[in-house]
UniProtKB/TrEMBL annotation:
Protein name: Fumarate reductase flavoprotein subunit
Organism: Pseudomonas linyingensis
Residues annotated as transmembrane: none
Statement: the UniProt record of this protein carries the keyword Flavoprotein: yes
Keyword RNA-binding applies: no
Length: 475
């Protein structure tokens, strides 16, 4: 018989780990959260707090009566050309509303007036929480405290105990803890440059430009991937994740491009509506020649649009884009990062793009601005700013801010971690950003990552507890 200190050990106390621990405890399992950091919450606590779900009471309160899990499922599968795991997407679609309403019971508020269309779908499914990420994390942390769930802080798990083909515990800070089930909820790996090279090369390729929005969350290092891989777990979802566009001036979160620029590639052509949501924008930008493009604008746009606050948060998302304010841009002109010239042809020469094509692109765009309609990409801008009054400016832009990583562990529909032959590794479960099998090649919309953490965290907690309680003798 195996010694057991707990029925369930949860490795990492962010959104997924807290949800898992609460559900495991609700099944009657004894449980501990082992957390590397000095506090709980992880990236979840620092996030924007948007949760993606369909068919919720919040939507109904906002007058959206006809959204369904089926519609959410169809949207995600279609967006990813069915290159997603139907079983996991289906599970998500059918359980996201329940998970959101569970968070509401724990105290998170999702005001109906803050619902947003956070993807490229036609219905508002992005539920923004009061207090952003801490509104979600605090509710979970308080609930875990009220349930008396134990937490070991400052305990970075460095090894899984693996005996006779089963995970039987963990080692952290030189000490062993034993349990018949372990749930890995260590989050993503955006702060680990080596792992980015290996698992997210289209982010790593931008060198010094690349950084993760998780930069202030110290253990977003992919430990859970290494821990599970070392005992034979498969790693899937290579090169998947979300990249956001940036000028690279600073490490400020800029989720969107401003509406008053045109984005052109090396060939001197526009390639998207500059107002494209991030399910589109970052991916398209990263597909251009040399994986970069240039934001082009003129003096009038710089003076009028960049100082107008209504253009700083085009989505009313509460995320402004500080890079694109006049003082910053003028400072970057002085530093030589923003190029300036009296003609578009000269500007193109400075940045190394096709000048004849750029003039042609600007001519078409300027005509469209005069007509009030973008005939190429149908950008729905609040106002159009032609590119016609010298001097002209060019800012290099790249998709180099990591919004989330989506390569990682593979699970089955019971959240059991799979090996390279798609066999569950006995005793091992996972949920949240550590997974590589859920998001697919194209992130469906804001809220799917916290959604992943809470929906699959809950599932992992239930399944691990059942497994542990069904095996009273241990392994
Ligand atoms: C600024 C920002 C804004 C975001 N906005 C949104 C949004 O609005 N909507 C959305 O869906 N997503 C958003 N995201 C992404 C989302 O927050 C995360 O993908 C999600 O919260 C991950 O949850 P998780 O529980 O898997 O990981 P985390 O919440 O990151 O938790 C992982 C925990 O594991 C711990 N850990 C790591 N390694 C070890 C180890 N070896 N031993 C013990 N503990 C360990 C970490 O310290 C951490 O506490 C945002 C992220 C950031 C940073």
């Amino acid at each position: 018989m195996m010694d057991r200190d707990y029925d369930v050990i949860v490795v990492g106390g962010g959104g997924a780990g807290l949800a898992a621990a609460l559900m495991a405890s609700a099944q009657g399992a004894s449980c501990i959260i082992v957390e590397a950091d000095g506090k709980l919450g992880g990236a979840t606590a620092q996030s924007g707090g948007v949760f993606y779900a369909a068919g919720t009471q919040v939507q109904r309160a906002a007058g959206i009566m006809d959204d369904t899990p089926q519609a959410l499922y169809d949207y995600l599968m279609t967006l990813n050309r069915w290159k997603m795991r139907p079983d996991l997407v289906r599970y998500y679609a059918e359980h996201a509303a329940e998970a959101l309403e569970w968070l509401m019971e724990l105290g998170t508020e999702f005001p109906e007036q803050w619902l947003v269309r956070s993807g490229v779908d036609s219905v508002a499914r992005g539920h923004s929480s009061q207090g952003a990420g801490s509104g979600i994390a605090d509710a979970l942390i308080n609930a875990a405290g009220a349930k008396g769930i134990e937490t070991a802080y400052g305990s970075r798990v460095e090894e899984l105990l693996f005996e006779d083909g089963r995970v039987v515990g963990i080692r952290a800070a030189g000490a062993e803890l034993r349990a018949p089930t372990v749930i890995i909820t260590t989050g993503g790996f955006g702060n680990n440059p080596q792992m980015l090279q290996r698992l997210y090369p289209s982010a790593a390729c931008h060198g010094d430009w690349t950084w993760a929005v998780h930069k202030d969350v110290p253990f977003v290092l992919g430990d859970g991937i290494n821990l599970a891989e070392s005992i034979g777990a498969a790693v899937v979802g290579h090169d998947c994740g979300l990249l956001l566009p940036t000028s690279g001036f600073s490490k400020s979160l800029e989720a969107f491009l401003p509406p008053w620029i045109i984005a052109v590639n090396k060939e001197g052509s526009r390639f998207m509506s500059e107002l494209s949501p991030y399910s589109v924008c970052g991916y398209l930008l990263n597909e251009q020649t040399e994986r970069r493009a240039w934001a082009i604008f003129d003096e009038q746009a710089l003076v009028q649009a960049s100082t107008n606050t209504k253009y700083l948060d085009p989505y009313n998302a509460g995320i402004s884009i500080p890079t694109w304010e006049e003082p910053t841009l003028r400072e970057q002109v002085r530093k030589g990062r923003v190029k300036v010239a009296n003609t578009l042809r000269e500007l193109a020469e400075q940045v190394g793009i096709d000048g004849i094509a750029l003039e042609q692109t600007a001519a078409v765009y300027n005509r469209d601005c005069a007509n009030g309609c973008d005939s190429q990409f149908f950008k729905q801008a609040p106002a159009y700013f032609p590119v016609q009054q010298a001097p002209f400016y060019a800012v290099e832009i790249r998709s180099a801010i990591i919004g989330l990583t989506a390569a990682g562990l593979d699970i089955d529909s019971q959240a059991r971690v799979l090996d390279g032959h798609k066999r569950p590794i006995p005793g091992l479960y996972a949920a949240g950003e550590v997974l590589g099998c859920f998001q697919g090649e194209r992130y469906g919309g804001g809220g799917l990552s916290i959604g992943n953490a809470v929906v699959f965290g809950r599932l992992a907690g239930i399944e691990a507890a059942r497994d542990a309680l069904a095996n009273p003798e241990g392994a």
